[in-house]
Amino acid sequence: MKKLLLIAGLLSAMAPVLVQSSYAGTRNFFTPTVGGDRLSFCSKTGRTCGKPIADAWCRAIGFEEALNYQRDRAASNRPTVARYADTGGLCRGKGCESFKQIKCWNGVS
Description:
- The protein is an alpha+beta fold.
- It is 25% helix and 33% strand.
- The strands form 2 sheets. The chain has a 4-stranded mixed β-sheet. A 3-stranded antiparallel β-sheet has the order 1-7-4.
């Protein structure tokens, strides 16, 4: 739980860089970024991946949660850079996985 709060806090601090306004309903974000870098699919430790990261990213930009998400498997086979949501640090190289897409939902329609 502490790790998820840390992720949400870090992303919230970066929210002005992510998106300037909130949205109603659902919205797809392709190759979501943090600070200009692709969002890492996992935390730095690798213990938290996928949905918790996507949820925190959606909350940081004014949505309630991620309805679905997709890992960019092609990016893990080529050198890439992705930013960890929990530390803000960068992952560099072929092993860095990132999101291809995140679909965020907000109960207000």
